[in-house]
UniProtKB/TrEMBL annotation:
Pfam families linked to this entry: Legum_prodom (PF20985), Peptidase_C13 (PF01650)
Active site: H173, C215
InterPro entries linked to this entry: AE, Legum_prodom, Legumain_prodom_sf, Peptidase_C13
Signal peptide: 1-23
The protein's name in its UniProt record: Legumain prodomain domain-containing protein
Native organism: Fraxinus pennsylvanica
Domain Legumain prodomain: 377-473
Record keywords: Disulfide bond, Glycoprotein, Hydrolase, Protease, Signal, Thiol protease
Gene3D superfamilies in UniProt: 1.10.132.130, 3.40.50.1460
Swiss-Prot/TrEMBL GO biological process terms: proteolysis involved in protein catabolic process; vacuolar protein processing
CC per GO annotation: vacuole
PANTHER family registered for this protein in UniProt: HEMOGLOBINASE FAMILY MEMBER, VACUOLAR-PROCESSING ENZYME GAMMA-ISOZYME
Protein family membership: Belongs to the peptidase C13 family.
Amino acid sequence: MMFWFAAGASFLLALSILAVADGRNLIKLPSEARQFFGLFDDSNGDANDDTVGTKWAVLLAGSTGYWNYRHQADLCHAYQILKRGGLKDENIIIFMYDDIAYNEENPRPGVIINSPHGEDVYKGVPKDYVGDDVTVNNFFAVILGNRTALTGGSRKVVHSGPNDHIFIYYADHGGPGVLGMPTNPYLYANDLVDVLKKKHASGTYKSLVFYLEACESGSIFEGLLPEGLNIYATTASNSEESSWGTYCPGDNPGPPPEYETCLGDLYSVAWMEDSEIHNLQKETLRQQYQLVRRRTANQNSYYGSHVMQYGDLKLSMENLFLYMGTNPANDNHSFVDNNALYLSSKAVNQRDADLLHFWHKFLKAPEGSVRKFEAQKQLANAMAHRTHIDSSIKLVGKLLFGIKKGPEVLKTIRPTGQPIVDDWDCLKSLVRSFETHCGSLSQYGMKHMRSIANICNAGIKQEQMAEASAQACASFPSSSWSSLYRGFSA
């Protein structure tokens, strides 16, 4: 008996060495080795395997306003998937403004749906950090497990250990090098990556997966997230393009007729609807990435984006189960690479989803009603803000570099693999200068972050930016879109 035990152990050790040498995952140790010798029953997943560690999740929706319904709907849906997957509330940390479920615009008070025929995904979602507690500082403190740095909220943090697996999901508006938040300031890419590096240096996780839904979301990691941190990240778009909303008014399939807003985001809905139908003990991160990439590209049509991956790509060979658990109802469902989830309809550019909401609200409101007037005013304010921001940035560029060279500088795109800016402190200072004189960039104006980064890269100092911004903006619209409370300034 001892002979066969020793021989079997030697055989498995040899296989593991060959697997490492060949760069392929031929056999998973130690769990499969332990199964081979009947040392535990795998029917309970990782319940008896101390090497798997605890699953942690941080979910953040960074927007406010009913026109951004989809971000909180995405987050709530993600929570339900993780909860059915076996994660405990004590290990799931939620950030959302929580102004959607009981918003006066919501046709089903207290209910949030993420697809046309979807169930309520809001029920049971923990209220860890809501309202003005959804801040960059709290988000970072939670990731680092630093309770002393928290302000408000449930005070839950990722109190992880060296064998634990962490899943972070973020959904909101974004721009080159920046992510939106419902509070001031917004989140810059270099600060996020610095926090991830600190988390790795603390030795308090085994691996970390980051799913990011935002416009130009590839710019958050490109040229910034190094290999060797045991972090695998996927993004809804590359560093130069928008991400897309889905299940929107006028779409097919669209939301129920009483809804005047998009229910979800294309990338987010893709990974979640995939997760709902498969046994995640058998599906790998790479398999989901490939499926989500094809669906989000939307058959290479105009209405889609390029899903990207960054960091330690070898982690993509791991099963989703390590991060999301798995719904026991899907135990008999194997991964199917070719399914109906690839099919999608016309999506809506994330940056235009607010206009779509205001327009449909206007169309459906009774003639002469207060609601119709309100929708018309909201649409006019949003358009005025866009026009002001676009023209102000263009004029600043011309004032700094001249009429011919200005547009060229603003439109420059750096080679693939480089971050958008070399000096992030410069970028932040120039944004502060612009917003001081021209008002908030806001969720729409994030698209111009690359232009301001290019101004930095060209050597312009804060004093020069302030002078040009003051000349370009004698005044700015007084609507909520331009309020500095909605801006990037610290």
